[in-house]
Amino acid sequence: MKNAVFAFWGCLLLLLGLFSCKKDELGAGFEMPYVAEFNIPPGINAFDTHYFYIDNLSSRYTSLLDQQGLTDEQMKSINTQQAGLYGIFGDENLGFISEASLRVYDERTPNDWVEIAYRQPTPLEPGSRLDLIPSLVDAKKYFSESRFSLVVVLRLRNTTSMEVPVRLNLIMRAGY
Fold this sequence. Notes:
The protein has helices at 2-20, 61-68, 140-143; strands spanning 29-40, 49-58, 77-87, 97-106, 109-119, 129-134, 147-156, 164-175.
């Protein structure tokens, strides 16, 4: 009898757990893709934090809104959907990167930034592709302007031995 009661309550809790979880829904929105390239120079050491600035990028925000037939007032948020660092030629090994952070800011106020993606710690052997984890921050303040800037912040495991050309792929999602 005691086992039947425990089994009943166990099944009830299991069913409640299964049906109470809701899958995250993206809702209505559109993608805002960006690509930028930079070089990681040879000989930079693992004791410093290294900043790679990608300045004055066009957001194309108003043209993307026009394509969708929307206004700025209808937009609720702009969040990171996907971000990653990729070796341009495909034979680079980004295993020398220990931590990575992607931040967005306005050039007029460089100290006012938000982290939109990160990876800490990074995999030991990522190959030529290092995917970053999107943060939950709403970056509409920056991407709704005509221009914005990015900074890739890296901490290294070891000193780089050669120049590494890197492509940053970023997809933001504008939700309404």
